[in-house]
Specification:
DNA-3-methyladenine glycosylase; about 300 residues; DNA repair; single chain; DNA damage; alpha+beta; Alkylbase_DNA_Glycosylase/TA; about 10% strand; DNA_glycosylase
């Protein structure tokens, strides 16, 4: 049996802290090998930092505290960046939620904007989610990380078959063979975009130190990365509370229905959210948490495209 040294940190916040809601956007599907929510309220997460891989186990210890156990070479770096990850820099000054989500805002008082500071980790799953049903993207992410990632340091949750995994590094992403993309159900266009991002990963990681608009422009210089993808990365890697996922298939209808009682397009969505800048993404998250304002479905569901059959 391998023995792993553990670093334990107790993080106390002056504000309410809901770990599950704050870290929730980092999970990509119920079987994500890099993220797991335990039935006991704990949250497990893995990451690949500058100093190496890390496994983090978050144990809520009250409305303002969480105990974090860290394993792996990246443990100390992860401990140092813990406040940023848990949204301690998330400034809600001046935020007045729309009436439709005031109840959700009250119930989700401990929700922060997560900030990982890891661009490629957010970028790859966002690229996989481009233009496909989310279940297909989650399946691809799970398959690729299990195939090309590395075993996570430390223990693993008992209810995660195969244990947790750490995402592949940039060099590994550039070397995923064509047939593995095919087996994962990823079309050649998205596969090439992931490879292009991985080739310039050091430059993309620098975006974490830039202003949000400048950071997103740098991401969008990579062919295949558009405004939707850069927004998804900004929400997770930069903690951007204003990044709206323009170009999302379902989001404009959901926002339009919630805030005006009518479906709308991207332009209409942005007009409805404009009064809440610089907290537009925060409003969207609250709408998703509330769940009472779903637009009625129109027409049959689209069939799931399975690129493995091509």
């Amino acid at each position: 049996m391998v023995h792993w040294d553990v670093l334990t940190v107790r993080h106390s916040s002056p504000r309410r802290l809901d770990v599950a809601l704050t870290l929730g956007p980092l999970g990509h599907g119920p079987a994500d090998p890099t993220f797991h929510r335990g039935v006991d309220g704990t949250v497990w997460r893995t990451s690949l930092l500058h100093t190496g891989p890390v496994t983090q186990r978050f144990v809520p210890a009250g409305p303002h505290e969480v105990v974090v156990h860290l394993w792996g070479d990246g443990a100390r770096e992860a401990a140092e960046t813990l406040p940023a990850l848990l949204g301690e820099d998330d400034d809600t000054t001046g935020f007045a939620p729309p009436p439709q989500v005031r109840d959700a805002h009250r119930r989700a008082a401990g929700m922060r904007m997560v900030r990982t500071g890891r661009v490629l980790e957010a970028l790859v799953p966002a690229v996989l989610e481009q233009r496909v049903q989310i279940v297909t993207a989650h399946r691809a992410w799970r398959w690729l990380v299990r195939r090309h990632g590395t075993p996570a340091p430390g223990p693993a949750p008992a209810d995660v078959p195969g244990g947790l995994r750490v995402v592949p590094d940039a060099r590994t992403w550039t070397r995923v063979p064509v047939w593995d993309w095919h087996r994962a159900g990823v079309d050649p266009g998205r596969a090439r975009t992931v490879a292009r991002c991985a080739l310039v990963a050091p430059r993309l990681e620098e975006a974490c130190a830039m202003a949000p608009a400048e950071a997103r422009l740098r991401l969008e210089k990579v062919q295949g990365v558009g405004v939707w993808t850069s927004a998804e990365v900004a929400q997770r890697a930069f903690g951007d509370a204003d990044a709206v996922s323009v170009g999302d298939f379902h989001l404009p209808a959901a926002v339009g229905w919630a805030l005006s009682g009518e479906r709308t397009d991207d332009g209409g969505m942005l007009r409805l959210l404009a009064p809440y800048a610089p907290h537009r993404h925060r409003v969207v998250r609250l709408l998703m948490i509330d769940g009472r304002h779903k637009a009625p479905r129109r027409g049959p569901k689209l069939p799931i495209a399975d690129y493995r059959a091509f």
